[in-house]
Structure to design on (129 residues):
């Protein structure tokens, strides 16, 4: 029988795939191609749509992550605290990025911070194995 916690981890990882994969797709595919062949409006529409998808992904991450944190007794785990703090910082940076899209340095910071959060997520699930 497929275990419910397996399904929650699967959902968590699907949301991570959208969240991080979408940023990689933006940074390495859409924006370089869009700058060359597209126009500002289509780039904005793509970024806007990605923002909506990311909002849904973050809701799924928070819901599945909270359930897993109870199940795996992680609320007093130091690494988990760091992950939660970094997610709060990320949320603030995302709001800043959306309000000031011309500040390109924020894109790089959001992307790098996302990589760090995924690192801590993997560490939480498996340790350094
Ligand atoms: C989860 C991370 C991200 C989210 C949720 C997000 C979301 C958004 C949103 C909602 C906008 C405003 C669109 C509008 O004006 O309606 C925007 C603008 C933009 N984003 Fe992001 N973004 C993320 C990460 C990134 C990354 C990593 C890059 C590049 C490497 C990037 C590049 C841009 C650019 C270039 C714009 C400005 C488009 C324009 O007005 O010409 N974003 N983003
Ligand atoms: C930006 C948002 C997030 C990202 C990128 C992210 C990423 C990850 C990744 C990659 C894993 C490893 C999954 C595995 O190998 O099974 C993970 C595990 C975990 N995440 Fe997240 N996560 C995010 C948000 C959250 C939130 C908001 C919570 C809780 C409130 C949370 C709680 C957890 C827990 C408890 C685990 C460990 C699950 C286990 O032991 O199997 N995550 N996360």
């Amino acid at each position: 029988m497929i275990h419910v916690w397996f399904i929650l981890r699967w959902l968590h990882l699907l949301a991570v795939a959208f969240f991080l994969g979408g940023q990689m797709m933006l940074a390495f595919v859409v924006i370089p191609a869009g700058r060359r062949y597209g126009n500002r409006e289509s780039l904005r529409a793509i970024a806007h749509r990605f923002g909506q998808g990311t909002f849904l992904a973050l809701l799924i991450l928070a819901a599945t992550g909270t359930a897993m944190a109870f199940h795996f007794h992680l609320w007093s785990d130091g690494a988990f605290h760091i992950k939660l703090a970094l997610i709060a910082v990320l949320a603030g940076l995302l709001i800043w990025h959306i309000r000031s899209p011309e500040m390109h340095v924020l894109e790089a910071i959001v992307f790098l911070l996302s990589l760090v959060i995924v690192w801590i997520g993997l560490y939480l699930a498996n340790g350094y194995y």
User: Anything to note?
Assistant: The chain has four helices and no strands.
